[in-house]
Amino acid sequence: MDEAAGNVRLEIGGGTAVITMVAVGSRNALNPALVVELDAALDEVEEHRDEVRCVVLTAEGKAFSVGADLASGDGSELIDADGRFDLGLVLDDTYHPLLQRLRQLHCPFLTAVNGVAAGGGMSLALMGDLVLAADTAYFVQSFRHIGLAPDMGSTFMLPRLVGFGRAMELSLLGEKLDAATALEWGLVNRVCADDNLMDETLSMAARLATGPTIALGLTRAAYWASVDSTYEQQLRIERENQRLLGLTTDFASGVRGFLKKEPPTFVGR
Predict the structure, then answer these.
(1) CA pair distance 213, 267, nearest whole angstrom
(2) In 3D, which of 135, 139, 136 has the Cα closest to residue 150?
(3) Do the beta carbons of residue 131 and residue 111 sit within 8 Å?
(4) Residue 68: helix, strand or coil by DSSP?
(5) Helix (H, G, I), strand (E, B) or coil at 114
(6) What is the DSSP letter of 107?
(7) Residue-wise pLDDT tens for the chain (269 aa)?
(8) What is the layout of strands, in order, in the sheet containing 8-13?
(9) What is the DSSP secondary-structure string of 155-199?
(10) Contact at 8 Å (CB) between 204 and 128?
(11) CA-to-CA distance for 253 and 34, rounded, in angstroms?
(12) Burial letters 48-75, b for 16+ CB under 10 A, else e
């Protein structure tokens, strides 16, 4: 399956859904129109969830995303019910629902960062369970350059990925962080040569797509839950996960393979 709208292309095959932002002219700047198309792609993924066992988000051109499209819209979408200007409305109505959908995906989610990821584009890139970056890619918390504070979950993700001090440095100074340093700091999981980025990403996606999908989905959900849970609550989540997974075909296959010393065949059920 290969479907394309104006700003987004979706390809489904081999257990993997690849969502590609193709708004090259705007350097994949984020705006409500682009998010509508990303949502439509996720709707399609949901309709085919039995065959989609890994999701990849990437982009065409020299930018993953330069962040918010400051030239889009006429401003009416930023006026609240009392007629006051409120820049936060676009977060409530557009970006936060998208981030929540990505958090709640049923399977592993990879991001392949092909170029600059700035502002909200950096936030979107960091939503990947695993983040792969081209060696010429770079990240920048550009909010301070236009008089804004970080958004789209940056203040949540960054200190957890790179620590408090480095998160502060990135956000207060707004300096570029190259891919090699991002790897050293733990912001990304892999750095690849530019022309190998998608090959390596799809290879990793294929590995995940042939894994125990329900177990991997519950694994990512458990880690997301852990940031809000007490130790005791997390133990209960783990206990419930094992109850559910003990009933799956993949668990039976895994045990059978272990006992026979043979690689298991996971079917995602």
Answers:
(1) 8
(2) 139
(3) yes
(4) strand
(5) coil
(6) S
(7) 555 568 999 999 999 999 999 999 999 999 999 999 999 999 999 999 999 999 999 999 999 999 988 766 656 666 667 677 667 788 888 999 999 999 999 999 999 999 999 999 999 999 999 999 999 999 999 999 999 999 999 999 999 999 999 999 999 999 999 999 999 999 999 999 999 999 999 999 999 999 999 999 999 999 999 988 999 999 999 999 999 999 999 999 998 888 888 888 888 89
(8) 2-4, 8-13, 16-21, 54-59, 109-113, 130-134, 190-192
(9) HHHHHHHH-HHHHHHHHHH---EEHHHHHHHTS-SEEE-GGGHHH
(10) no
(11) 41
(12) ebebbbbbbbbbebbbbbbbbbeeeeee
CB-based burial, 18-44: b 16+ in 10 Å, e otherwise:
bbbbbbeebbbbbbebbbbbbeebbeb
- Residue 259, phi then psi, degrees to nearest 5: -70, -35
Residue carrying the six token digits 């949901």: 46
Q: Is 116 helix (H, G, I), strand (E, B) or coil?
A: strand
Residue 169 contacts by C-beta under 8 Å, 6 or more apart in sequence? Answer: 175
Please name the CATH architecture into which domain 2-209 falls. Answer: Alpha-Beta Complex (3.90)
In order, the DSSP letters of 209-261 are HTS-HHHHHHHHHHHHHHTT--HHHHHHHHHHHHHHHTTSHHHHHHHHHHHHT
Integer CA distances (angstroms), 80 to 36, 88, 97, 148, 151, in order = 21, 10, 18, 19, 19
